[in-house]
Amino acid sequence: MNDKKMMKIVSEDGSSEEVEVVFAFEFKDTKKEYVIYTRNERDDDNNVTVYISNVDRSNGETKLLGVETDEEWNRIKDVLRELAKSE
Questions:
Q1: Cα distance between residue 58 and residue 38, in whole Å
Q2: H helix or E strand, kind and range, residue 50
Q3: pTM for this structure?
Q4: CB-based contact 66:53 (threshold 8 Å)
Q5: CA 78 to chain centre
Q6: Domain enclosing residue 47, as ranges
């Protein structure tokens, strides 16, 4: 049984692709939602490359935005460290 969660992302140029959702979470204090996903690419050390986006559901449409501040990145890295510990 395949229990992978997939989502379709559409680029600004209109092209789309299916990607695998690794993890999604929200910071309760900021109400910002994030998704970690992968295209199952591997780097030179054979690690799977992951991408992290801020999920924007305003305007009735879901958009993936970049992470804008160092503070956001630091909090996301803390989440990633916790995930790595639990595996």
A1: 24
A2: strand 48-56
A3: 0.84
A4: yes
A5: 14
A6: 5-86
